[in-house]
Specification:
The protein is an all-alpha fold. The protein has 9 helices and no strands. Helix 5 packs across helix 9, helix 6 packs across helix 8 and helix 8 packs antiparallel against helix 9.
């Protein structure tokens, strides 16, 4: 069993995430460098590499917590409050969300969400899927991100409750069609 991170590790990761967020907003993802993130976080480049291999790994780690709520839709009854809170968080941070849901970070977001979903599918007792779990997970992740992206962009305008219900219904429909889930 791996030891829990100590306070210094938690503090360093928080500083890296904060620097990453600030720099993404100011420069865009393409212009980011490990050196710039490390400098802004007041850590050395080697310290960055002790925690993350690449900028994509930092991005993936920064979104796993929020994306767990979306991934949970495949194998748990929807927690309407958690889902609504997540959507409102995205809306409140729409400048960051718009940057991250665009190119070149969208594939990293989709892969991260798909991995979270695939992990849940492998741990669940669903019937044999029509296609491999990784394919089901990628389809569900892409659908969820497309809906969140459209909502954040306001194209068309949608109420948060309607988006939450659509995420649940869309996830259920894809899971039923591709993963053999019957509810």
């Amino acid at each position: 069993m791996a030891a829990a991170p100590d306070r210094r590790q938690i503090k360093t990761r928080a500083a890296l995430h904060s620097a990453f967020r600030s720099l993404v907003l100011g420069q865009g993802y393409d212009a980011l460098t490990v050196g710039a993130v490390a400098d802004m976080a007041n850590v050395g480049r080697s310290t960055f590499y002790e925690h993350y291999r690449t900028m994509d790994d930092l991005l993936s780690a920064s979104i796993q917590g929020p994306f767990a709520t979306l991934a949970d839709l495949v194998d748990k009854p929807a927690d309407g409050d958690a889902l609504l809170n997540l959507l409102l968080h995205f809306r409140e941070n729409q400048q960051v969300a718009r940057v991250l849901l665009g190119w070149p970070t969208r594939p990293v977001l989709a892969s991260t969400l798909a991995q979270l979903i695939a992990d849940r599918l492998r741990a669940s007792s669903l019937a044999a899927p029509l296609v491999p779990a990784e394919v089901v997970a990628r389809q569900v992740a892409e659908m969820q991100l497309a809906l969140v992206d459209a909502w954040i962009a306001g194209r068309p305008a949608m109420l948060p409750d309607a988006v939450a219900r659509a995420l649940v219904a869309g996830t259920d429909a894809l899971m039923s069609a591709l993963a053999g889930r019957v509810r």
